Amino acid sequence: MSRFISQKFEKLVPYTPGEQPQDKKYIKLNTNESPFPPSDKAVSGVSDIFKRLMLYPDPECTGLNEKFAKLIGVEKDEVMAVNGSDEILNFAFSAFCDKEKTAVFPDITYGFYEVFADYNGVPYKKIPLGDDFKINISDYFNANATVFIANPNAPTGIALTLDEVEEIVKNNPDNVVVIDEAYVDFGGESAVPLIHKYDNLLVTQTFSKSRSAAGARLGFGIACKSLIADLNTVRFSTNPYNINAMTMALGEGILDDEDYTRKNCKKIIEARLFAENELKKLGFEMTNSSANFIFARHKNISGEKIYKKLKEKGILVRHFNGERIKDFNRITVGTKDEMTVLIGKLKEIIKEEF
Ligand code: PMP
């Protein structure tokens, strides 16, 4: 840190992204990307854009917003494209939180929420998950703060039902409730239909998981028009051209091939079920995941050891250090073939240990 750092950032502890190793080819099961590349149809329009890159992109993201809105059954002014859903989460902390309207979220959830809170100078409270790692919805009623909930939650993968989400939204008439649906396409229920009923609900989604485009950085906010207008105030005050022209073209291509997305989600859910069964046979226990990852611990081997040994054997998974979760690893669900290799390597590890 230099002596010039502003006072407000002196104590900021930045987010640590998952490993993105560039040196060696791993089976990469650590940051919940899709194992499937974008389809040929999805990328077909992108190269035309290169020759138009001397121009700024459309700050209104018209074509992409229209297509996405149509797909999810809302209006164009009820969505906002963002540079990865991380961007809209940060915008939500800026737009809807301050020293009086603080933030609440579970103690075990997406680690970026507290970093965004700190970055925006927003005090926050972390509410412990239950013994079963579940969110107790009544903990969030009348929160007197902006509520941030990942549904399904990460890294547990446990989903709330749509009724439970509605209870949280309904019981916070004076607070914005942000439902982060990064993993909703793998078995969760989306809260998008509720935006027409509640003016305090913001849903966030991403193209980084089910839509195979983590590298392009594309996400969406979905809410009633007035909340989207607030978020656009933040966007136009920081980065009006937040979606670059290549990402815009890719995003439209991806939406033109929704079949491919749905088929891939089905394959991932099947691979998850396969891996969960095999992991159980090897002595792992896991939470009930509705996401494209499995949160698992072995009854006899520490989470850290499994993480390290898998890495030596060419498989990357995610290990977290929190007290309650240090025995677990979060394992992204890849293809069935990748899951088969994973199970084989875990069998080797178990044999080496005993
Ligand atoms: N929310 C959750 C719960 C996540 O796990 C992630 C990805 N790490 C994100 C949001 C952000 O996704 P992106 O910025 O790639 O859209």
Automatic annotation (TrEMBL):
<comment type="pathway">
    <text>Amino-acid biosynthesis; L-histidine biosynthesis; L-histidine from 5-phospho-alpha-D-ribose 1-diphosphate: step 7/9.</text>
</comment>
<keyword id="KW-0028">Amino-acid biosynthesis</keyword>
<keyword id="KW-0663">Pyridoxal phosphate</keyword>
<protein>
    <recommendedName>
        <fullName>Histidinol-phosphate aminotransferase</fullName>
        <ecNumber>2.6.1.9</ecNumber>
    </recommendedName>
</protein>
<dbReference type="GO" id="GO:0000105">
    <property type="term" value="P:L-histidine biosynthetic process"/>
</dbReference>
<dbReference type="InterPro" id="IPR015424">
    <property type="entry name" value="PyrdxlP-dep_Trfase"/>
</dbReference>
<comment type="subunit">
    <text>Homodimer.</text>
</comment>
<dbReference type="InterPro" id="IPR015421">
    <property type="entry name" value="PyrdxlP-dep_Trfase_major"/>
</dbReference>
<feature type="domain" description="Aminotransferase class I/classII large">
    <location>
        <begin position="25"/>
        <end position="345"/>
    </location>
</feature>
<dbReference type="InterPro" id="IPR005861">
    <property type="entry name" value="HisP_aminotrans"/>
</dbReference>
<dbReference type="Pfam" id="PF00155">
    <property type="entry name" value="Aminotran_1_2"/>
</dbReference>
<feature type="modified residue" description="N6-(pyridoxal phosphate)lysine">
    <location>
        <position position="209"/>
    </location>
</feature>
<keyword id="KW-0032">Aminotransferase</keyword>
<keyword id="KW-0808">Transferase</keyword>
<dbReference type="InterPro" id="IPR004839">
    <property type="entry name" value="Aminotransferase_I/II_large"/>
</dbReference>
<dbReference type="InterPro" id="IPR001917">
    <property type="entry name" value="Aminotrans_II_pyridoxalP_BS"/>
</dbReference>
<dbReference type="GO" id="GO:0004400">
    <property type="term" value="F:histidinol-phosphate transaminase activity"/>
</dbReference>
<dbReference type="InterPro" id="IPR015422">
    <property type="entry name" value="PyrdxlP-dep_Trfase_small"/>
</dbReference>
<comment type="similarity">
    <text>Belongs to the class-II pyridoxal-phosphate-dependent aminotransferase family. Histidinol-phosphate aminotransferase subfamily.</text>
</comment>
<keyword id="KW-0368">Histidine biosynthesis</keyword>
<dbReference type="GO" id="GO:0030170">
    <property type="term" value="F:pyridoxal phosphate binding"/>
</dbReference>
